[in-house]
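Thread: Modeling a multi-component assembly for a lab meeting

Hi all, long-time lurker, first post. My supervisor asked me to bring a structural picture of a complex we are working on to next week's group meeting, and I have zero experience with this. I have the sequence lines for every component (848 residues in total). Could someone generate the structure of the whole assembly? Inputs are pasted exactly as I received them:
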Amino acid sequence: MNSITITVDDLTFRYPGSDEPVLRNANVEIDSGEFTAIIGGNGSGKTTLCKAFNGLIPHFFNGTFEGTVSIGDTVTTDSDVSALSKTVGYVFQDFENQLVQPIVLDDVAFAPKNHGLEDYEARAMDALESVGLEDAADRFIWELSGGQQHLVALAGVLAMEPEFIIVDEPAAQLDPHNARKTYEQLREIQRETEVGVIAIEHHTEFIGDYCDRLVMVADGDVAWAKPVDIGLNRVEELLDADIHPPQVTQIARQLPNREGTLPNGRYPVTVEQAVNAFPTVAPKGDHPVKPDGRGSDKTLISVSDVTHGYPTLREGRKTVLDAFDIELYADSRVALVGANGAGKSTLLRLLTGLESPDKGTVTVLGNDTNDTLPEELAEETVYIHQNPEEMFVEETVREDIAYYLESRDDPDVDERVADVIEFLDLEDIADRDGRLLSVGQQRRASLAIGLATDPTIVLLDEPTGSLDLQSRREVTQILSRSVTRTETVVVATHDLQLVAEWADRVIVLGPNGILADETPQSVFQQPGLLEQAHLRPPQVVELSDRLGMDPPSLTTTDIVDRLATQEGR
Amino acid sequence: MGYLDAIQNITIADIKLDLMRTAYDNDEALLNKFDPRIVIIWSAIFVIVPWFFYEPEPLFAMLIAALLLAYLSQTSIYLLGLLIWGSVSNIGFIVILSSVVYWWQGGSGGLRGAVVDNSVALLPFTMKLTVISVVSLAAFSAMSPKKLAKGLLSLGVPRPFTFAIAYGYRMVPVLVEEYHDLVNSLRLRNKAPENSGLLRWRYYLYLLKLSVKAFYPMAFNVAKRSRVTVEAMETQGFSHSLGNEASRELRLGDLQILPRDVTFMLVSLLFVVVVAVFL
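Re: Modeling a multi-component assembly
Sure thing. I ran the full set together rather than chain by chain. Output:
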C-alpha cells in the first residue's frame, strides 16, 4: 500500500460564538506510514486539529474555517464527514458513547452497513479478529470491560479499512494495563497494514515506547513535528505546556555533568535507553524504617471472612471476594491496587454499607454494616465515586458541598462550606454547575463534597483516573493535605506513581484474594508480584531495578540523589 | 433492621437483573422466533380483537392465553405485575368512586351492593385492558431490539425511529447504572428519618423522595454523553445511510416469512374463532 499524507495548510478555525480562534495558521504533514503522537497542553487545539482530518471540522462544527486540509488528493471542504471517515477513522476519548448498537458484531458492522457494503459481516469479523475480540462477537456491549469496549470502538473504525486511525487520549479512560495493550495493538496494526495511526496523548511514556513522530501543538499552532527521540528531548517546552517528559528523561536531565546522556548527546526517552546511558554500578540505599506501613494500632475497619459477589445475567452469581479478611488502622494511607475485577471497588462499597456482604461481617468504626444504614455510616465515612459526575446533584458546586450539612441541619453551613472551598482553592468554580466542569475540576469538587462532611475515614475510587498532569498534581496535593483532617484514607487505584509517592501501605488484590500487604518499597521490589496483578511499576522503579539498585527508588528526586552521590565518589 | 435491609438489597439487584433479562435475553423467547413483521401485525390484531367480545368467559380464555404466551416469552415478572397492578388499581378506583357516588345519590342496595354491581359491570372492560397490555408487553419485550427495528423498518417506519429503538436498548444498562449510582450517592449524603414509623413507612417515603430526586441528574448526565454519540454517528455514515437504498437492502436482506410464521398466525386466529363460537 502506498502511503498517503494528511496536509494541513494554513488552517485557522474559530468555533461559532467564540472570539478567539482555536487554531491559527497551523501547518503540518502527517504520513500514513508512521505512528504519530499529537501532544499539547489543555485547550491547545490538538483535538480540534484532529477533527479537521475527518471533516467534523468544518462540516459538523460550522465555524469560521480558513486554509485547506487534504487527505491525499481529497480536500476536506469538498467532501463530507461520512466519505472522509472511510479514509480517516476516529476513536473518541469517550469511546463508550461511540458504541450505538447493543451487540458487538452489529456495532462493528454499523459503518459498513451504513455505507451499503455487502461484505459488512466479513469486514466486521476481520476487524474483530485483528483486535483479538472474535470470541466476543455475539456479546452485549454492556457486558464488556472498558478495555474491551475501547477495542470494539477501534474495530468499528478498522472495519472501514481506513488509511488513518485517530485515537483520542486512550490512556485517559483506560487503566494502564489496558492502555498499554491498546498501544501494542495499534503499533502492530500500524506495522502490518501501514495504516497511519495518530494518537492524541499526554502520557509521554507511551509516546516514547510506541510512537515514531511527535507533533507539538501549542496555542493553536503546530509548534513542531519531530522524531520522538528528538521531540521528547525538548524538555523545557514540554514542561511549559504542562506536559511531563518520561521519568527517565527527567532523571537524565537532573543528573550532574550530563552523566545521563546517550552517546549522541540526547537524553534517553525509554527505560531501555536509560539503562544503557546511566552509570552501571549499583548504589546502596537505606531501607525504610517502618516495616509494614500500618500507622497506629487503633483498628478502624475490620472485614472478617467476607464473601461477596453480584448476580450476572448468564453465569449465575459471580464471587468477587472470597473469605476475605483485612484490618485497616488509624493514621494510615492505604492504597488498594490490583487488576480490574479483583474487587477494589466492591470492597470500598462494602465499607460504605451500600452493599451488605453475602457472608461474613464488615465493621466500620465499631458499627456492623449489616445492622447500620449507609446514611448512618456516612456520618464518619465518606466515599468518593470513581466517576465524579455521580456526586453532583445540585446546580452549583457550592450547593453540592452544602448538601450533606444541610440535610443534617448543621447550624453553620455557610461557614463550613466557605472553609472547605478555601482549603481546596475552589473559589473559581464554586458557583458553577459541577456537571459542566472539566474532569479535573470535577474531581477536585468531588473531593470537596466529601471533605465537607468532616470524615474520619475517606474512601476514594480512582481519584487520579482520566486526569491530565496538571489536575493530577492538584488532586495529589489535596490527597496529601486531606490526611491532616482525617484519620485514614483508602484509595483504590491503578496509578502506581500515586502509590509510590503517597501511600504508606499497599494492599495488592489478586483473583484469589490478597497477594501482598506491605509498604510500597517492598511491593515494588517484587516485579513478579506486580505482573501477577496486571500492574506496571513507574519508570523510576523499573529503572532502578534494571540498574540493580537496592532498595528501588520510588521518586525521581531520590534516584537522582543516589546516582549523583555515587558520581561524587 | 439488617434483615429488612438485606431483602431490600437483594430486590434492587434482582429487579435490575430481571429488567436486563427482559431487554436482552431473548434467545429462548417464543415470540422472538417468528418473523418480526408477523409478530408486529399479530400484536396489532390482538390489541383490537378483545374489543369485539362482551362476555367475561371468552375474555377470560384470552387472558389465560395471553398470560401463557407472556410466560413462554419470558416476560419480566416485575413488569407484568406492574402492568396488572396498574389496570386493577385504575379500574378499582373507578369502581369505588362510582359506587360511592351511586350510594350518595341514594341508589338501592347500599354501598356494598353498588360495589359488587359495578365490579361485575366493569369486569369485561378490565379484562380487555389487561389482555391487550399483556399481549403487547409480551410481543415487544420478547423481540430482540434488532428484530423489532428490522420489522418496523420493513413496514415503512422511518429509519431514525427504528435506530432509536436499537440505541435505546444500548442505553438501558447505562441508564440503570447511572440511576443506581446517583441514588446511592444521594443516600450517602442524606439523613434517614430517625423514627421510621409503622412498617418503616417514613424510611420508604424518604427513599422514594431520593429516587425522584435522582431523575434529573440522570437525564442531565446521559444527555451530556449523547453529544459525542451524535458526532460519532456522523463519522459512521449514519446520515449517509438514510437515503441509501443499498444500505436499506442490506438491513432487510435476511427477513423472510416462513411456514411457521403463517402457522402461528393461523393458529392464533383459529383460537379466536373457537373462543367466539364455543364460549
